[in-house]
Amino acid sequence: MGAFKEYVMNEKNKIAKLSLRGKLEYIWQYYKLWITGIVCAVILLLYLLVHFLVTPRDNWFYAVFANTYADAGEHSKLWDGFVEYAGLDVKEKNVVFNNICYFDPSKDSYNEYYNAFVAYVDSKTMDIVTMETEDLEALGKKGRLMDLSNTQIAGRLAEKYADRLVYALPNDTEYSKEPIPVGIDLSDTCLVNEFHLYEGSCALGISALAPHLDKAEMFLEYVLNWEESYE
User: Fold this and answer.
1) Which parts of the chain sit beneath pLDDT 70?
2) How many other CB atoms are there within 10 angstroms of residue 22's CB atom?
């Protein structure tokens, strides 16, 4: 401790003899790493405070737009339109449009994106996923998507969108030996025609554990009525 006090006194004496400019140059030359570290620590602390105290933690709705490079994330035209259509206050809760998820559901081996996707489903975070129709059918076989014929959970979705249903035969034959509705075809909607998420076909599936089914229905209405809303 005594050595440290002696060091501090020597530094004070050195600096006291310098001009103001000399003092600043000396401090920056010999203490810039300490200064940079302290500034970075303060910035990090402020960021964490804002993140935990200001940023909403719960979600109104969580959508995954898989296997697309189109602009469909937060504050995209698609995102802005849905938030306005649904009348959601994003200062209260989040509306998440995840468009950085890439995997082939027809394969038996998967990457980190698929592992994250499974986590979104199992943690009851994700509400919907869109993919090319063939990919959604392959995903539906694996039991990660809601069986839309289950009226206790899916309500009247299968009846409401009967002419758009996408079917898949589950890999789990104990669940069903017949194809079940796992998605809704949206190939003729703004997701393809306006926002170009996919080139040809597009289908929407609802997570088997979707926490916000009402918002999923609202998103379907928004997409299907988009042309009328923006005429």
Assistant:
1) 1-2, 4-8, 11, 22-24, 26, 30-31, 41, 44, 46-57, 227-231
2) 12
**193-229: pLDDT as tens digits:** 999 999 989 999 999 999 999 999 999 999 999 865 6
Q: What is the DSSP string of the chain?
A: -HHHHHHHHHHHHHHHTS-HHHHHHHHHHHHHHHHHHHHHHHHHHHHHHHHHHTS--SEEEEEEETT--SS-STTSHHHHHHHHHHT--TTTSEEEEE------TTSSS--HHHHHHHHHHHTT---EEEE-HHHHHHHHTTT-B--TT-HHHHTTHHHHTGGGEEEE--S-TTT-SS-EEEEEE-TTSHHHHTS-SSSS--EEEEBTT-S-HHHHHHHHHHHHTHHHHT-
Cβ atoms of 192 and 228 closer than 8 Å = no
**Per the confidence metrics, is the pTM higher than 0.70?**
yes
Count Cβ atoms within 10 A of the Cβ of residue 62 and give its class: 0-12 exposed, 13-18 middle, 19 or more buried. buried
